[in-house]
Amino acid sequence: MTAVVAVVCALALGLLLVPSGRRVPALPSSRGSGAAGPSRLPRLPRPGLRSAAVMGGIAAAVLIGGAGGTVVGLVVAAAAWWGIPRLQSGAERDRRTELARQAPVAVDLLAACLASGASVESSLAATARAVPGAAGDVLATATAALRLGADPLDVWREVGALPELAGLARAAARSAGTGAPLAALLPRVADDLRAGRRADAEARVRTAAVRLTAPLGLAFLPAFVALGVVPVVASWIGTLL
Fold it and tell me: What is the pTM of this model?
């Protein structure tokens, strides 16, 4: 019986850990029939990974059994609870980094296309072709949804789920809801994106400087102890003796 429970927990753990790309659900149409196809947005961690940590701990405890199994199960569950949400493939991190890097350029190009008199769909399509990669994929998905007749507010709500394009989505949704010219809103969005990237870079530099102090301290501390503390302590001991 315990083996069956362990196998079931292990299978459930495996199903929760299977990587799954994030898809934009079919958007309802407000001007006709049709639905947008699946997007190629950056893949995100699955929300059920916390449950996988608990199941992994239960499976380990059942397999080992006894008090030792309980301890091992708790350790496995705690380690998985902390570590699984932090597991993110290098390709996924690179894609999110690429999206953050391309977002200001894509917003500037979109503003230029709109300022030339092109429609929103045509501007999005031109920007998606000009900026290949993560940003182009997201904009191409939004273009397809709009051309299929999806509600613009729903389309931009899905785009705004990505923090890197949340500013663009808010500006586009405001323009679609109020009729304000989108081309006039996008330059400020691009400036905010560049300011955010600059702040993130400065924060990483400060974090790196702080982290460098630890190895430097470990390198200089033995020398300080050997050259500064040991002679003083030895002289005191010699004086006392």
Answer: 0.56
